[in-house]
Amino acid sequence: MTRVLKAGILGATGTVGQRFILLLSQHPYFTIHALGASPRSAGKTYAKATKWKMAQRIPAEVQDMVVKTCEPTGEFLECDVVFSGLDADVAGEIEMAFLKADLGLFSNAKNYRTHEEVPLIVPMANPSHFDLLAHQRSKHSLSKGFLVTNANCSTSGMVVPLKALQDAFGPLSKIMVTTMQAVSGAGYPGVSSLDIMDNVVPFIGGEEEKMEWETLKILGSVNKDLNGFDLLQSTKVSATCNRVPVIDGHTECVSIEFERKPAPSVEEVIRVMEEYRTEAQALGCHSAPEQAIIVSREDDRPQPRLDRENGNGYSVTVGRVRPCNILDIKFTLLVHNTILGAAGSGVLLAELAQKKGLIV
Ligand SMILES: NC(=O)C1=CN([C@@H]2O[C@H](COP(=O)(O)OP(=O)(O)OC[C@H]3O[C@@H](n4cnc5c(N)ncnc54)[C@H](OP(=O)(O)O)[C@@H]3O)[C@@H](O)[C@H]2O)C=CC1
Ligand SMILES: N[C@@H](CC(=O)OP(=O)(O)O)C(=O)O
């Protein structure tokens, strides 16, 4: 019988924090034990502190919980695991303080993704990167604490089919991606309605650089001494990112070239995506979807409104797989940006860590 773990949430009042609350409130492995946000929210009940934007009601068990400041004291010190949905402007210092207090942390923020001792893991792409944690613990003299980051929301969707293809057919030499990203990706209140209604904004600060770099770490590997990462060297990634008037769900048009010649056919690519199985499924993780990648055969799918809840938001939906006249293959994918692209990844990573015996 699995021990129920006490979970803390940093940034609990934000867009990602609200999604953590929903995902953890009925979860069989976790109980919500501590909520943290800015000094503006601290001291208020959760219901008063948050501007709740989820379609489901605030879960009863958190309504009257008092929000705390984000310090590794009191109830946070009693937590077995802490999830961070903190604003990146403050995440760096706060997350480091929690790590130094020997707490186990899953972060959504960008601050430590590029750090050489911090795994950057998309649960259905590179769970093998947990292998670096022993080194991280010994380097920072931690007995049970750790810091694991999950990826940028657009990166999180793209790397799942790319990992399936890389495993089956070897390295990709070129990846070109154009995104259409939902407004919930910018948090709350996010993009002004006057900017986004009847419009497309062809710029999201820092997003293209993150997609281009994070992909190389995630599709790379832990080195043979298990003390660093070998980034992909021969793969080139070019990203173009746009904000569109969709509430949830990032759509991405991806073209890829394989090193292997001749390149696999459309039928082989579809088969590999449909047959892709991950460690999260093999270990029976509670939130792992039945299918990591759902391939849609219709001409006009995936669509955010119709496909973002596939696999409860944990599946990536791929459609329009076809030959590319410039590279080899192109397709369109959809990822739920606050589930697989954010809070859901954190929760599934914690489930994986528990199954692997890393939460002590
Ligand atoms: N939205 C998305 O799809 C994705 C977001 N992310 C990342 O997740 C993180 C959260 O994003 P999101 O939920 O969209 O952002 P929001 O702006 O909606 O929420 C930010 C949270 O940070 C808290 N916060 C702000 N300032 C402080 C402070 N000084 N001390 C402590 N807490 C503070 C806020 O508390 P308060 O309410 O009290 O101000 C709030 O809980 C960011 O790092 C973001 O880049 C990652 C992937 C996808
Ligand atoms: N920038 C993403 C969301 C986000 O916060 O990404 P990151 O965690 O990489 O900073 C979006 O706007 O859709």
UniProtKB/TrEMBL annotation:
Class of this enzyme: oxidoreductase
Catalytic residues (UniProt): C153 (acyl-thioester intermediate), H250 (proton acceptor)
Statement: the UniProt record of this protein carries the keyword NADP: yes
EC numbers: 1.2.1.11
Entry GO MF terms: aspartate-semialdehyde dehydrogenase activity; NAD binding; NADP binding; protein dimerization activity
UniProt GO BP: homoserine biosynthetic process; lysine biosynthetic process via diaminopimelate; methionine biosynthetic process; threonine biosynthetic process
TM stretches of this protein: none
Domain Semialdehyde dehydrogenase NAD-binding: residue ranges: 6-133
One Pfam family hit: Semialdhyde_dhC
Keywords, sorted A to Z: Amino-acid biosynthesis, Methionine biosynthesis, NADP, Oxidoreductase, Threonine biosynthesis
UniProt KW Amino-acid biosynthesis keyword: yes
Signal peptide (residue range): none
InterPro entries (UniProt xref): ASADH-related, Asp-semialdehyde_DH_CS, Asp_semi-ald_DH_pep-lack, NAD(P)-bd_dom_sf, Semialdehyde_DH_NAD-bd, Semialdhyde_DH_dimer_dom
UniProt cross-references to PANTHER family, sorted A to Z: ASPARTATE-SEMIALDEHYDE DEHYDROGENASE (PTHR46718)
Function: Catalyzes the NADPH-dependent formation of L-aspartate 4-semialdehyde (L-ASA) by the reductive dephosphorylation of 4-phospho-L-aspartate. Mediates the second step in the biosynthesis of amino acids that derive from aspartate (the aspartate family of amino acids), including methioinine and threonine, the latter of which is a precursor to isoleucine.
Protein name as catalogued: Aspartate-semialdehyde dehydrogenase
